[in-house]
Design goal:
Helices cover 28% and strands 42% of the residues. It has an eleven-stranded antiparallel β-sheet with strand order 8-7-4-3-2-1-13-12-11-10-9.
Length: 309
């Protein structure tokens, strides 16, 4: 009888875990589609009574989000900005990994340190790894998806570099502590943020200000993003090679340190130039990845990465 009860209990736990993971995957895919987005940001509080709050920011965009790669424990979601029928911008990428124990923790000044997450802590969780337009690291965190009362929510707090809307206009802080909440809605999804703007120095940390961010993704007809679909068909091969080169470097678990510019160019500009050349004269994947790797090498400060000396 005890053996039967144990079998039934284990069977129930397995069914529950399978149902949870299936619901998680469905929620992650719930971010996909052609979206009209509004981005809203407002500073809310500062510990410094003399701090002058920055003006609120509100922007709009059309973005195509889709699953580009899927395995049982990983989903790769691509984001493409749709400007018009002739202008598409590769925006950012997010990798979702199930029970991932190998993370990159952002430090400051384009530097990320390897972080090992205990298996017991990662159990049942999904990590969201966010990458820049050039597929270099941005930020990542791990948390459990919650499904209750018709709500599907993932919430995590992690350190990140400054967003473009900030690093191009200010230098009074160097770390954004992102409080990310992803909520799947009946019309798309909501990326709700409670962010801290942190100045991190060898002496410690100081909060400059707090910020509320709301990125609201409203799904529209897929046809509005047809140009993005065609663009990706043409450009995918090159950028998958870029993705894989970065994956090999990150997998060495030594962290990543980057120069912001080399010879007056950002890494994104250098890779875009390679992408243009590749479209004119495609080459075998091995040769393409070797050229991509050599380009990334110029921007790496930590030359001790295997094969990068």
């Amino acid at each position: 009888m005890k053996r039967i009860l144990l079998t039934l209990t284990l069977g129930g736990l397995f069914t529950s875990a399978f149902a949870q993971k299936s619901a998680d995957i469905q929620a992650i895919k719930g971010q996909c589609g052609c979206h009209a987005i509004t981005f809203k940001y407002a500073e809310t509080f500062s510990p410094n009574p003399e701090y002058k709050f920055k003006e609120r920011k509100e922007m709009g965009a059309l973005e195509y989000v889709f699953v580009d790669e899927e395995t049982p424990n990983k989903l790769v979601l691509m984001h493409l900005l749709v400007i018009n029928d002739s202008t598409i911008i590769k925006h950012w990428r997010e990798d979702w990994k199930f029970q991932n124990t190998d993370l990159l923790a952002y430090d400051k000044e384009a530097s990320w340190k390897y972080k090992s997450l205990p298996t017991s802590e990662a159990k049942g969780q999904w990590s969201q790894q966010v990458f820049e337009v050039d597929d270099s690291p941005r930020y990542e965190g791990s948390a459990t998806w919650f499904h209750a009362d018709g709500r599907h929510v993932w919430e995590n707090t992690t350190d990140a570099p400054l967003p473009r809307r900030e690093y191009t206009t200010r230098n009074d802080y160097n770390v954004m502590r992102r409080g990310n909440q992803i909520v799947i809605t009946d019309y798309g999804y909501l990326h709700d943020q409670d962010n801290g703007k942190i100045l991190r120095t060898p002496e410690g940390e100081k909060v400059i200000a707090y910020e509320k961010g709301i990125n609201d993704y409203h799904r529209v007809k897929d046809a509005a993003c047809n140009s993005a679909k065609e663009w990706w068909k043409t450009n995918r091969t090159f950028w998958v090679d870029v993705r894989n080169v970065w994956g090999d470097l990150i997998a060495q678990k030594k962290g990543i340190e980057l120069e912001k510019k080399v010879d007056g160019k950002s890494l994104n500009q250098s890779l875009d130039a390679l992408a243009s050349a590749y479209l004119k004269a495609p080459k075998a994947s091995a040769a393409n990845k070797a050229e991509i790797k050599a380009t990334i090498q110029k921007y790496l400060k930590n030359k001790d990465l295997i094969g990068m000396k």
